[in-house]
Amino acid sequence: MLPYGRQSVDDGDVAAVSEVLTSDWLTTGPWVRTFESELAELAGTQGAVTVTSGTAALHTAYAAIGIGPGDEVVTTPLTFVATASTATMLGATVVFADVTPDTGNLDPDSVSAVLTDRTRVVSGVDYGGHPIDVAGLRGLVADRDTLLLEDAAHSIGGSLDGTPVGSLADVTTFSFFPTKNLTTAEGGAVVATDPEVLRRAATFRNIGMVKDPDRMQRSDEGAWWYEVHELGVNYRLPDVLAALGSNQLTRLGRFKARRTELHRRYTEGLAGLDELVLPPTRDGADPTWHLYSLRIRDGRRRALFDHLRDHGIGVQVNYIPVYWHPLYAAQGYQRGMCPVAEEYYEQEISLPLFPDLLDSDVDRVIELVRGFLGG
């Protein structure tokens, strides 16, 4: 079965991991600090806080912002559930806004209609790798006590109008799952424009432990002393995985270029079929493509999905609208709330896309799709 996504691991990755395994540090050591510094440079921020997953990154980001009961977080339903559920875990109310029909990203007009005085965060998702509409969303929150968060699980290494993903929003989260644009096996990170958010994120992911004398209530107990002022969790990324991430970063440019080539090959090969909607690139966007989100609008998504799976093509669907899940349905969220996102989901199939995918693999997928449609 040809998977829809797969990691690319080379001898350099193996050597980087082996070096850590024979060192004095497996976690909380120098490789984590190096990886965080490299991520901050890539994102154009003052720092980065690594964590154990993309979900952990979202949880940490919301906690660092101070999200809690009484707050509202506006986000898209066309995402993995963690974009919403980690805010719910902290007691916030999640408010869903619809997406644009071209990119599948948050629609600023829909967001505008649901903003209230309790909206603390607008969380956009770079669906498939295409950056969010930063200008449109920024305009909505500029004069409010509301932060813009970019869930960039799909888009590390991308940019919009020359600004790197990571510097577009107030807070940005990354995921390093094996199918993503670079991997640490499991892992994620938070970057932010406000150093205080980064400090709070670093404390939260380290079980809330405070060791800085300037922040302690008592600092004269001895070198062993630490304090916990707020609840935190153990989301520390081990050095062994950070070393893998650092070596992967050296190839991110090549990963991005190959993903762009493959994306273009799909688009050229599937052009001219009226039943299909192909993913666009808006002016100014330079995506790092994570997904090739094909849409079929004649009602045969399930049939095409099964056809491709039956021929050994491991396609996927991204994503089930978040409020369709029983967790949110039980809270009163109704189907039909975001009709554009629901239509997008009902049409979408993610075709295989990863750096080691062969041109011949892409051509085979194209041939199977065209054969199904009689084209």
UniProtKB/TrEMBL annotation:
Q: Which cofactor does it need?
A: pyridoxal 5'-phosphate
Q: Which residues form the active site?
A: K180 (proton acceptor)
The family database entries (InterPro entries) matched by this protein are listed as: DegT/StrS_aminotransferase, PyrdxlP-dep_Trfase, PyrdxlP-dep_Trfase_major, PyrdxlP-dep_Trfase_small
Pfam families for the chain: DegT_DnrJ_EryC1
This protein's superkingdom?
Bacteria
Q: Name one GO biological process term.
A: polysaccharide biosynthetic process
- GO molecular function annotations of the record: pyridoxal phosphate binding; transaminase activity
This protein's UniProt keywords: Pyridoxal phosphate
> Can you tell me which residues the record assigns to a coiled coil?
none
N6-(pyridoxal phosphate)lysine occurs at which residues? K180
Q: Please report which protein family the annotation says this sequence is part of.
A: Belongs to the DegT/DnrJ/EryC1 family.
State the name under which the record lists this protein.
dTDP-4-amino-4,6-dideoxygalactose transaminase
Native species: Pedococcus dokdonensis
Taxonomic lineage is: Bacteria, Bacillati, Actinomycetota, Actinomycetes, Micrococcales
